[in-house]
Design brief:
By secondary structure, this protein is of the alpha/beta class. It contains 10 helices and 10 strands. The radius of gyration is 18 Å and the shape is globular.
Length: about 280
């Protein structure tokens, strides 16, 4: 039994593996091979998005992997720019077509604002409309679970105040150096599972000497410590890699971080993502 076999249970009783493969920045013509290799290693949770431009490749990897479709959990995300019902409904069908799947296990609204206005204007009505399209697809069984990404408490409350199906997931930037404890606690109080993307801070945590020293004490790598940290926060961890050696290492996290060290890691502050700071999610907004 490894972490790759362990699952959380969403509020609708759907099981979701605790560790998944993130596919941001893996090109469409390379991602199918990455998916197949991940599946061979034991990964059962594959995460993509319309914005990644690789749904077609992910779907091909899923369909050509040596495993039954029902044994995989495939997630994608509705483009952040889509804030009306009709375009959202069409985009959901577009993802199903691009993935080549008859159902998606989890689909999220990628952001409460379009990327060029991240944390900007109020798109409350548009998010409610996009959510209604997800609810309708969920009702037909085309999507097994629905959620959001990058949603703050106010964004979640907007959905919770009008929905017929509450979000089951909120995928957030969570890593050592950026632990939104109040938001995670609010999600837990609403039975919304948090998924942690960029659990190694888009690679920047590799440069942190204090974290490296702690990892050495546990006899593990910095990525392993960071992934274990997000798991002990009660989140799904979604490390991104196309390297099979890294995939294997990222799943070797069967150790326990002490309460004292968890507290120390919670208090790490890291908001400088260097060259990646141009991306909205790393901009500090």
């Amino acid at each position: 039994m490894t972490i790759l076999n362990e699952t959380y249970t969403l509020s609708n009783d759907v099981a979701i593996p605790k560790v998944g493969l993130g596919t941001w920045f893996i090109d469409d013509d390379k991602v199918a091979q990455a998916v197949r290799e991940a599946v061979e290693i034991g990964y059962r949770n594959i995460d993509t998005a319309q914005a990644y431009g690789n749904e077609r490749g992910v779907g091909h990897g899923v369909s050509t992997a040596d495993i039954a479709r029902e044994d995989l959990f495939v997630s994608t995300k509705l483009a952040a720019e889509i804030k009306d019902y009709d375009r959202a409904a069409a985009a959901i069908e577009g993802s199903l077509a691009d993935l080549g799947l008859d159902h998606i296990d989890l689909m999220l609204i990628h952001s409460p604002q379009p990327w060029d206005d991240f944390r900007g204007d109020d798109y409350a009505e548009g998010n409610r409309e996009a959510w209604r399209a997800l609810e309708d697809a969920y009702g037909t069984g085309r999507i097994r679970s629905i959620g959001v990404s990058n949603f703050l408490r106010s964004d979640l409350e907007n959905i919770l105040g009008s929905c017929t199906v509450a979000p089951q997931v909120n995928q957030l930037l969570v890593h050592v150096g950026n632990t939104p404890a109040e938001l995670i606690a609010f999600c837990e109080s609403e039975d919304i599972l948090v998924e942690a993307y960029s659990p190694i801070a888009h690679g920047r945590m590799l440069e942190n000497t204090d974290v490296a020293a702690m990892a050495a004490r546990y006899g593990v790598s910095v990525p392993q410590l960071c992934i274990r940290y997000t798991l002990q926060l009660g989140t799904v961890s979604l490390p991104k890699t196309a390297n099979p050696e890294h995939m294997r290492a990222n799943a070797q996290v069967d150790f326990v971080i002490s309460d004292e060290d968890m507290d120390a890691l919670r208090n790490v502050r890291m908001r400088d993502y260097g060259e990646h700071s141009g991306f909205p999610v790393y901009s500090g907004k």
